[in-house]
Amino acid sequence: MKHLILALLTGAALAASSPAYAAVKTIVLVHGAFADGSGWKPVADILQSHGYTALVVQEPETSFAADVAATRRVLDKAGPCVLVGHSYGGMIITETGAHPDVKALVYVAATQPDVGEGLSDLSSKMPAAAKSIGPVGDGFLAVNSDAFPDDFAADAPKPVARFMAISQVPTSAEAFGAEATVAAWKQKPSYAVIPMQDRMINPDLERFMTKRAKSQVIELPGSHAIFLSHASEVAALIEKAATEAK
C-alpha cells in the first residue's frame, strides 16, 4: 500500500509540473499579412518540445473570407485548442475564435477588433510608424522590400529579414477593409504580446485593444516579428493560456 500511495503522489506531482498535462494540448497558429506560416517555426519547435501539438494555418491572403475559411478547416479537426494570431491574424482569430473547440485566444503583435471594426479602421485611429505598405497590382498590397527589414523585422537576423522581404505574401486590400462580425474575445479568455518597438501596428493601439478586451498582457522590447526575436517568451504565454484553459 505504501508503494501504491508513493506512486500515486509521484504521478500527481508530474501531472502538476508537466506541460503535457495542460488542459489543452493543441495550439493553432495563424500568421499575419505579408508573411506565411513558416515564421511560426521557432515558436512551434518550442511548443512541440514541451509536448504540445502545433498546427499552422496557411491562409491564402486573397480575401478575409478565404482566410477565415482556411482557419476554420484547421479548427474543425484540431480538437480543444488555443488559437494564436499574429498581426492581421488577430482579425482572423477574433472572427473564428467562437469555434467551440477554441478555449483561449493569444494575440501576438495583433489586431483585436470589436464587431464592426476592421484593420484599416483601427489603424487610422492610431497610425503605425511604418509607411511602407503599397499596392502591387490586382488589388493586392505588400511592404516595400527595402523598408521591410526595418519596419517588419528589425530585431531578426538581417539575412532572415531580407529573405522575409523578398518572400512576403502580397495581401488582398479587401482583407484590410473587412470588418469583424464576431468578437470572440468577449466570450473566451485572451492573452496578448505587445512589442514595444512595433512599427507595423502602433503599440498604443495594441494597448487600447488589449485593455478593452481585458487580455492578460506582456510587453517585450522588439519589432513586429516578435515571434522570431522572442520565441521563448511568446511560447511561454501560449503555454500559460493552455494551462489555464477550461
What are the salient characteristics of this protein?
246 residues, alpha/beta, Rossmann fold, 6-stranded parallel beta sheet, 3-stranded antiparallel beta sheet, 42% helix, globular
Question: Describe it for me?
Answer:
This protein is α/β, with parallel strands linked by helices and about 250 residues long. The protein has a single domain (about 25-245), classed as Alpha/Beta hydrolase fold, catalytic domain (Rossmann fold, 3-Layer(aba) Sandwich). It is built from eleven helices and nine strands. The chain has helices spanning about 1-15, 40-50, 65-80, 90-95, 120-125, 150, 160-165, 175, 205-215, 225-230, 230-245, and strands spanning about 25-30, 55, 80-85, 100-110, 135, 140-145, 170, 190-195, 215-220. It has a six-stranded parallel β-sheet, with helices on both faces. Strands 5-6-7 form a three-stranded antiparallel β-sheet. β1 (about 25-30), α2 (about 40-50) and β2 form a beta-alpha-beta unit. It is globular. The two termini are about 35 Å apart. Residues about 1-20 have low confidence and may be disordered.
Q: Beta-strand percentage?
A: 15-25%
CATH class: Alpha Beta
For the record, give the distance between the C-alpha atoms at the N and C termini, rounded to a whole number.
34 Å
Helix and strand content put the structural class at alpha/beta
Molecular shape: globular
Question: What's the layout of helices and strands?
Answer:
Layout: H1 2-17, E1 26-30, H2 41-49, E2 53-57, H3 64-78, E3 81-86, H4 89-96, E4 102-108, H5 119-125, E5 133-137, E6 140-143, H6 148-152, H7 158-167, E7 171-172, H8 173-177, E8 190-195, H9 203-213, E9 216-220, H10 226-229, H11 231-244
Parallel strand pairs: 1-2, 1-3, 3-4, 4-8, 8-9
Antiparallel strand pairs: 5-6, 6-7
Helix pairs in contact: 2-11, 3-4
